[in-house]
Amino acid sequence: MPKLFVNNQEVEVKPDATLYDAAKVLGVEIPTLCYLEGKLPIGACRVCLVEVEGAKTLVASCSTPAVEGMRVHTNNKRVREARRMVVELILSEHEGNCQYCGRSEDCELKEIASHLGIEDIHYKGEKPAIQIDSSTPALVRDSGKCIKCRRCVTVCREVQGVGSLFPQNRGYKTMIGPAFAMDLDSVACVQCGQCAAICPVGAIQEKNDIDRVWEALEDKTKHVVVQTAPAIRAALGECFGYPPGTLVTGKMVTALRRIGFHSVFDTNFAADLTIIEEGTELLMRLKKALVEKQPVSLPMFTSCSPGWIKFAEYYYPEFLPNLSTCKSPQQMFGALAKTYYATQKGVKPEDMVVVSIMPCTAKKFEASRPEMNASGFQDVDYVLTTRELGFMIESAGIDFRSLEDGTMDSPLGISTGAADIFANTGGVMEAALRTVYEIVTGREFPGADLRLGPVEGLAGIKAASLVITGTVPEWSFLENVEVKVAVAHGLANAAQLLDQIKEGKAQYHFIEIMTCPGGCIGGGGQPRYTDDAVRLARINAIYKEDAGKKLRKSHANPQIKKLYDEYLKQPLGEKSHHLLHTHYHARPKT
Amino acid sequence: MDASSQKTKSLGAAQGTCCSCQPSEEEMLRSLDVVIDGFAKTEGALIPILQTAQNLFGYLPKSVLKHISLQLKIPYSEVTGVVTFYSFFSTVPRGKHVVRVCLGTACYVRGGGQVLDALRKRLAINVNQTTDDRMFTLEVARCFGACGLAPTMSIDDVVFKRVRPGKIAEIIDGFYSKGENVKEGVRHA
Q: Is residue A557 part of a domain?
């Protein structure tokens, strides 16, 4: 355990700590534009320079190991001047357009420049050519704003196992992007938006759909409904200064109503529905395998996360038959809004506009998929990220913090706690087990507080198993069967799990996969900046929301029962098949 | 390297050999796979594999880069990132002879720019272009490690030292009139 001095204060750190870590222990914040928690530092931005007594030059604190007896200075004239020069050089090539950049409120470069007291850029000259890529429905990349910190490269390759982005060309001509600086839609990008979530500047952002939503709201011929994903309520508050993990469900509903949505609904409703359909599908597959001894694709994978779907289409097409055929809750909602609800309301589906608020950029892509037109129209018209909703509320002049709590409209706004936990890694698994276990045994799921500890938390791959006993007659073939489940989040972890299964090293019945680290609460469309502490705070909030609900099991949702009685008739029935299920196809990788 | 600035784009024609004895793309890919298999357990094998591929194909076609990406399980973006980083790699067909003019610091201050101008004029092409007869491709290099001999240029594996712009026409004409036999080594110009 090396002991060293940072700004003349002694500190003891772990053997593998860097100078950046050592400063952090003392509460000294060193500015950086390329550092990524938990990843090997690459020292690309050079902003975190510090002085080490006896060293010839200043060193990058993120990539310099802490050594016994070092005397480090993080804030003296030499350090400040060097940092200022580094940031001025970055700014000299940065076409920021700060006045109208979507990141003007939370731009890390702008904040650091301001903290360093930069008032002028002393380096004038040529700027690299700007290339704007708006080829995908989800993301817009602007090379003029890119500062080549390479956080996106790391997150795309190491966290998501995709590797769509890499520095192309050399030196001054370097561009961060797909092969040969092509557009994103021509490469195997899953559009998860983790790059947009960690970009320090405005170089990668979600494609803005706010104006199109305003337009729909002002069109008198349209009936505009909104659905909000479970993860929004635990993060939207951060856009208005609340600490991470503050639940703002009620204020969010009021804000959406003030914005002018005709009905404020909940993706949670469709999440409950997903559990009924997906749980039944799992039981059917198990029955086919264990009773009828028919070939059937197991393990079954959840299919709620559109980045994961696209990842499987590109990289693991051999597992496509293992994906649940259930559409995601967003798409189930869209299909029902334009059929079941439209009929109830007496609105023609072509006059109904469905807007989703999602923690996700891939949901924008998902809504535009050709498979998602079950109503005869595009089932979900516009998808806004949590951040976009934050902007929208602010630009509407709504004082979010002073809003009173509202409640969701019926019928598509009624949901249970099982739907809330769709927001976090492990949650869909728990929600499914709450229902499946009760169907099979007639008893409540035995986990403490209806939860399954081993599948919760931020470990990349988690597994659990439970032996089923005391089955009801219909499901007696499951008596004494050990049901094995696994959960992965972050696509690199998912890939690792899939490889284990391929190699026969692991066997499971049911697997939950979420694209983003932490699940949807850590999605690419959530307020910045998301690190593990923020992820955990949001997850805790979600479980608080779940615990506070009177109904915590999807099959207990009275509106879901009514939906089946009045409209769908039965899980996996003909109507369900048409509206709520789909299939996916392999895509070429390069 | 900007592909749009290239004059020639057709595959294979740049090799200057007759078509009948030219191995097919598939045969060349198979030879490449043998090399890739040889590197199966080696970390950091991408660059030698790219060099082999460029020697086989004369340049690095996109189809070959995609093949390498899939075989090595390295993202395509990373393969092209390496290819576009090093000026030695070319993604477009090149002439029978590759002329490289060094514009490293030493060569630059001792007149590398004028050597380049003379070559441009004589070959009637710009940097990264190939002559219509597919004899020469003109490239700029960053230091041959022969700064004491500045200014330098190379044609294929021969390095020309203390090049004078006035001699360029003679050197190039030698390749046309005598079918200059190129061997490795250093030559006075």
A: yes
